[in-house]
Write a structure and sequence with these properties.
It comes from Enteractinococcus helveticum. This is C-type cytochrome biogenesis protein CcsB. The chain is about 70% helix and about 0% strand. By secondary structure, the protein is mostly helical. The two termini are about 20 Å apart. The model has no long low-confidence stretch (mean pLDDT about 85).
């Protein structure tokens, strides 16, 4: 058995806690951005109204003008604009980068300490999964303005870190022979990346439902003014889900091949196998229904949300309470 580097293991546990605390600070700043959005928008529009009035007065027009039409504050292509300053959100992004770096150090330290991929139990899967969600979010931020889902992403990552460090603390150790395979890296890593993308699209679908209701009632105010249109959210969710679905398909196929090598059969009706397939069916139905059956709007959003809830069920209830051949189904 490979010896465990206890020093690195202790540093890993320490930096997991530090990262969780920093994620908490990022979450608070993103929340503050949501809370102050209405005030910032009103201030911007008041400034625009004043500038418009001054222009008309200077041109010999009346000093009192009609109300300036609401300004487009966000791009439906999720491009960055300079329409409104969002210092709290920007600080939240900066702090989240710091938290991700500390988190990455903790995961890498545990990997080196155990001399294997950090996916041998539920604690490791949740902490590495939270890291991937944070990285996926930050990578998308390089090109697209996704600050409007910052509260959700930082909140989910924070909850996963709390659950792992408090609910499922597991000392660094070796894994059973079935997991001592290169399939642990390929199969699980792709599944984690797909989960990160599914998390983003879930947030978009939730916001889509809220924005769609506001648009229908002509009451898009406050923070929702900084969120793209419901149609844009739906289109981006569809595109990202198409990418994640390919990854999830690979996860299902790779898992079957690994099962044959480890347990002698491609399919064992194991709880994790069954629920991985259920998730695949839900997202396949989502993509098919939207592409060929015209399932758009509310139905599309709820189907996407259902897929993510099945994903959460698979990684929580199934892991904790269902008998499974997968080692990380236990504590």
């Amino acid at each position: 058995m490979t010896p465990v580097n206890e020093t690195l293991a202790s540093y890993s546990e320490l930096f997991m806690l530090i990262a969780a605390l920093i994620y908490l600070v990022a979450f608070l700043f993103f929340s503050w951005d949501m809370a102050t959005a209405s005030r910032s928008i009103r201030k911007l529009e008041a400034e625009l109204q004043t500038e418009k009035a001054k222009e008309l007065v200077g041109a010999g027009g009346p000093g009192v003008t009609e109300r300036t039409p609401a300004r487009q504050l966000v791009s439906d292509d999720m491009e960055y604009t300079d329409s409104i300053k969002r210092p709290a959100a920007n600080i939240g992004v900066a702090i989240m980068i710091i938290a991700t770096l500390a988190h990455a150090f903790a995961v890498v330290a545990r990997t080196i300490a155990a001399s294997r991929a950090p996916w041998g139990n539920l604690y490791e899967f949740m902490t590495s999964g939270a890291l991937v969600i944070a990285i996926v979010y930050l990578v998308f931020l390089l090109r697209k303005d996704l600050r409007f889902v910052g509260t959700f992403v930082s909140g989910v990552v924070l909850l996963m870190m709390i659950a792992a460090t408090i609910g499922f603390p597991t000392p660094v150790g070796n894994v059973q022979p079935a997991l001592q395979s290169w399939w642990l890296i390929t199969h699980v890593s792709v599944a984690v990346i797909a989960t990160g993308i599914f998390s983003l699209t879930f947030a978009m679908s939730v916001l889509q439902l809220i924005k769609q209701r506001a648009e229908k009632n002509n009451s898009v105010t406050g923070f929702m003014r900084l969120v793209p249109s419901s149609l844009a959210l739906e289109n981006w969710s569809y595109r990202l889900n198409a990418i994640a679905f390919v990854m999830w398909t690979f996860t299902l196929i790779a898992g079957s091949i690994w099962a044959e090598q480890a347990w002698g059969r491609y399919w064992n009706w194991d709880a994790k196998e069954v629920w991985t397939f259920v998730i695949w069916v839900i997202y396949a139905g989502y993509l098919h229904a939207r592409a060929t059956r015209g399932w758009t709007g509310t139905r599309s959003a709820w189907l996407n949300i259902t897929g993510f809830l099945a994903l959460v069920f698979n990684y929580t209830i199934v892991n904790m309470y269902f008998p499974s051949l997968h080692s990380y189904a236990g504590f």
